[in-house]
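Q: Hi! First time doing this. I have a protein sequence and I read that you can turn it into a structure. Is that right? Here it is:
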Amino acid sequence: MEGWNHTGVKEFLLIGLTENPTLQIPLFLLFTLIYVITLLSNWGMIILIWLNVPLHTPMYFFLSNLSFCDICYSTVFTPKMLVNFLSRHKSTTFSGCVLQTFFFLEYVTTEGVLLSMMAYDRYVAIANPLSYTAIMTQSICVQMVLASYLGGLINALTHTLGLLKLDFCGPNVVNHFFCDIPPLLRLACSDAHTNELLLLIFSGVIAMFTFVVVMVSYIRIIIAIQRIHSAEGRRKAFSTCVSHLSAVTLFYGSVIFSYLQPSSQYSLEQEKVSAVFYTLVVPMLNPLIYSLRNNDVKNAAIKSICWKKIRT
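A: Yes, that's right. Below is the predicted 3D structure, encoded as structure tokens:
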């Protein structure tokens, strides 16, 4: 088909995190542990929310979707990474690389937008507590979550279709542990200027949108908290935001560090480490942050454990 990929490259070789053979097994064990914890903690959060009626609120509806996104997000990278730790030929097919890029863009965008939606939810809960359930109806929450996934889909399709229009004739070595857009564009034989421009525009728009929503929401949250007269009331109101603030800081902090380094100070090895953090570590930490700092989740977990013991 004219205008689409006429590539001579059938596979890409992934260098991975390190080429040091003595680190392959330790890293395999470490990331296997991280992946298992990620799956167990996120599925546990989803099941816990589903089983406990008191958690059937907008906040936990968003949280269950965040957990599902984290499961999918980490699964895009980890299984292939673990296989490559034990393989001498660390390769991925051209189609496999394109699919990994698509799902990476889908879930990284969805997670970023979803976190901004959760910031708005916290604003409504604190600034308008009496109208919270009337504003954040089930229909509105579903639409907000679907909008997050739609934003991810549009971003992923745009860049994936752009990749398919490029020619790859060699070299085929990707200096990364997954098929990220920037290292792939550097391997293209044809002009990738349009792809780079689209990447800059879409990344800028998504980053600006999510940043504005989060910042405006928290500025208005701070204003609302200042209007609460009692110190206990202010403390309780702010405590409902601590978990979300931690998740936002971890996710956006690692992404910004990864992609917004000055060119003079750019280090591919540092970029790999920060990529590991937001692609693998953050999905593991999110449910732990929300469970350890949230009394509702802890009480629901204790109740579920006690109920299971009673039944047995």
